[in-house]
Backbone:
């Protein structure tokens, strides 16, 4: 737990470099705006999110889980599960909570104002997976802490979940091509870039599908799974009908976007 921040940074930069190289070698879609027009703001938001979280919650969710564990409260301690089963149950429950949180941020107008900043990216690549408004990040952490408290989730499970969630978000937002048989097999277990890209279509019926970040099972279970976009992977348009100019992709514009009235 002491090296939690170092581990997460290593995973972030390792995936950023690895996926970026893959995007150069085998891009899935041609870029609309390109890295120079988007990366400074996307990475700037990611840095700002990290700073805000570290200031307001220095130890993060993992430290909270470790401190809370000493109380003995929570569903998992009450059930007296073996450590390995409590670990698996906590990771699965946290992932399910994030699925429903994602749906909530689409369904509630005031929350959509925050979340639409993520959807206003005109291209998708590895940096899109870290492009979330700081206020959304804080609300997400509050929800996560509540789930951790209800569960009494082990700190090790919270750490594993955080690392996997961030890694999957960067992977499934990446603009990478892979052989069709591999993609079809992989999407049985993981949310692939082709699968999640549908969620970023301008078609709202497609936007309101494929909410999962790591596994596709919640979408299949709750009826929000969509296998392919109507216009195909190369034909669909990414982003929103608004906030899609080059100026809208600047850092300052992203941060004030929730205050703008256009929905």
Residues:
């Amino acid at each position: 737990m002491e090296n939690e921040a170092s581990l997460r940074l290593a995973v972030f930069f390792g995936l950023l470099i690895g996926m970026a190289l893959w995007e150069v070698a085998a891009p899935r879609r041609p870029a609309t705006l390109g890295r120079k027009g988007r990366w400074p703001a996307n990475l700037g938001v990611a840095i700002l999110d990290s700073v805000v979280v570290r200031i307001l919650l220095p130890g993060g969710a993992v430290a909270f889980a470790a401190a809370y564990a000493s109380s003995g409260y929570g569903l998992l301690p009450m059930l007296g599960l073996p450590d390995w089963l409590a670990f698996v149950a906590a990771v699965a429950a946290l992932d399910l909570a994030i699925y429903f949180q994602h749906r909530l941020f689409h369904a509630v107008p005031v929350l959509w104002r925050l979340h639409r900043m993520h959807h206003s990216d005109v291209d998708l690549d590895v940096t899109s997976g870290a492009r979330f408004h700081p206020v959304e990040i804080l609300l997400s952490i509050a929800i996560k802490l509540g789930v951790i408290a209800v569960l009494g989730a082990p700190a090790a499970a919270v750490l594993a979940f955080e690392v996997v969630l961030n890694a999957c978000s960067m992977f499934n937002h990446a603009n990478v091509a892979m052989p069709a048989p591999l993609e079809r097999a992989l999407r049985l277990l993981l949310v692939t870039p082709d699968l999640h890209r549908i969620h970023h279509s301008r078609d709202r019926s497609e936007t309101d599908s494929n909410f999962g970040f790591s596994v596709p099972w919640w979408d299949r279970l709750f009826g929000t799974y969509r296998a392919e976009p109507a216009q195909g992977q190369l034909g669909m348009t990414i982003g929103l009908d608004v906030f899609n100019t080059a100026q809208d992709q600047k850092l300052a514009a992203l941060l004030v976007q929730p205050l703008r009235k256009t929905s």
Remarks:
- The longest helix spans residues 83-107.
- The chain has 14 helices and no strands.
- The mean pLDDT is 94.
- The two ends are 41 Å apart (CA to CA).
